[in-house]
Predict the 3D structure of the following.
Amino acid sequence: MKRISLCLCTLLVSLSAFSQGIQEYCTLDSLKYKGDMRHYWIHVPEKLSDAAPLMVCLHGYGGDAVRKSKVQLVELADREGFVVCFPQGLRDPRGKTGWNVGYPAQDGMKTDDIGFVEKLTKALQRKYSLDSRNAFLVGMSNGGEMCYLMARRKPDLFAGVISIAGLTLECMKPIGYNKPVPFMEVHGTADKTSYWTGDHTNAYGWGAYLSVPAAISYVVAANGCSGYSQETLPDTTKPVILHKYLDGKPARHGKGHATEVWLYEVQGGTHSWSDKEMDTYAQIWSFMSRFMY
């Protein structure tokens, strides 16, 4: 009977991708930070793996944690045994929800999302007795920009950082990377929101930003990666080239894994999770499981 119940639960989670979203499988909670009550949705599987990881997943600009978060990540958490959290971004001066990464429209915005993500991550690790070494940050679009920013500002907080269609803004460059961190980027070459080739003149209003290969080159250099491999993924609807930069300096004060940087070049892919072109969630788990402690 228990096995039947678990199978039914998995089926319902799968069907939910076409229904109402993550709120049916998550608990709404909140955390006060610098005067704001910050809300988040969290899913804790019935069975957690040993040294269970935490995934913090950041939605895109103008979205919300319920409608813009992926039920497939809940499925993945159940299957592999980790906790997944979907925080809600606050509104910027334009009234758009998201994360304060330095867009021109966010000029003067005081929200400290770097500190909030750090506090939330540590609070959840304590609350659910999770291994503090095994936190991962995932972000889509504006959430992906936060991934690049957190990798610069808080590299020891996460065992790995995963950006989906994210960018490195020119205003981030002076911050620099001060420690190595495993990093993964998934990006479509035909993305018309976050251009693969960059926007060096701020033609589209997000602020000037680097091309995706240039942005990745900064992470590769900071990690000291000396190796490289390339492969074309099988069973994809469009060509997906995985560029792996290997043999980087160990993370975590020289005691962790050798760092790597994975760039998925989705040829002809648009501004999305690229989950119509490939099994993005399997690739995310492949990355996470490689860099868990």
